[in-house]
């Protein structure tokens, strides 16, 4: 779940940093800047107060809290996972550790750190993880610490019917690490209190193993959700608007 938040931060960073006709609190990075990566990092850091409350006129959601309507992921047929009406606290307290930008290949690599995230929402899960059959739907809460993410974004330029060039996100890959965490899934197995408590205890007692198995499903949810969000932002601006020469 925390991977979804990390990817959301990446989308926000690039969606705002390169938009055109920006207010004076946003620093624009030029395409021919020899220190483009450093420029983007400085721009993101200056934007953090605005990202906390959101920038509605640029379709950028608030990061505090960050609200996600629906996230769907699958993991090789082992488990199906859907999250709905998710509220995340702590997403605005991110640190941008590293950033690489290549405008020739339109490839971006970002490393983020989030010290603490808490989430609440609704889940629907069915499958097998850490040798346990898990099935149920209902409210959920989670608490995660020392989260780090390495996110790779691949974009391409395509010409649309209006004759203009537009950017499109074609691939988003994320690798994460989590220092620790705790989940509480209510109403497992139709509300069976014995099975529900046993599964929650097993998950939290084997949290690292649980995250290792559930990670592909979360990464699938990231791709499904944030690729669409990113492209929704990008379609508002031509390539030349997003990356001015000077």
From TrEMBL:
InterPro entries in alphabetical order: Haemolymph_juvenile_hormone-bd (IPR010562), To_sf (IPR038606)
Superkingdom to which the source organism belongs: Eukaryota
Keyword annotations from UniProtKB, A to Z: Biological rhythms, Signal
Pfam families (UniProt xref): JHBP (PF06585)
GO cellular component terms, semicolon-separated: extracellular space
Signal listed as a keyword: yes
Signal peptide limits: 1-19
Biological-process GO terms, alphabetical: circadian rhythm
Family: Belongs to the TO family.
The protein, known as: Circadian clock-controlled protein-like
């Amino acid at each position: 779940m925390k991977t979804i938040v990390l990817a959301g931060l990446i989308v926000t960073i690039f969606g705002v940093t390169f938009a055109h006709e920006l207010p004076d609190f946003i620093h624009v990075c030029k395409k021919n800047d020899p220190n483009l990566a450093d420029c983007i990092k400085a721009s993101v850091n200056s934007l953090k107060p605005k990202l906390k409350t959101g920038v509605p006129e640029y379709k950028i959601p608030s990061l505090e809290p960050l609200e996600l309507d629906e996230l769907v992921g699958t993991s090789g047929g082992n488990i199906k996972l859907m999250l709905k009406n998710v509220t995340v606290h702590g997403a605005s307290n991110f640190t941008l550790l590293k950033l690489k930008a290549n405008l020739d290949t339109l490839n971006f690599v970002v490393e983020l750190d989030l010290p603490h995230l808490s989430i609440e929402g609704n889940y629907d899960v069915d499958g097998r993880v850490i040798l346990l059959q898990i099935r149920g739907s209902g409210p959920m809460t989670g608490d995660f610490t020392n989260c780090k993410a390495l996110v790779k974004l691949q974009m391409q330029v395509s010409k649309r019917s209006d004759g203009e060039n537009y950017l499109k996100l074609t691939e988003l890959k994320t690798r994460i690490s989590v220092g620790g965490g705790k989940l509480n899934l209510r109403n497992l197995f139709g509300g069976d209190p014995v099975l529900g408590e046993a599964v929650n205890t097993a998950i939290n007692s084997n949290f690292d193993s649980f995250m290792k198995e559930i990670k592909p499903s979360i990464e699938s949810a990231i791709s499904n959700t944030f690729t669409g969000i990113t492209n929704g932002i990008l379609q508002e601006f031509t390539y030349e608007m997003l990356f001015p020469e000077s």
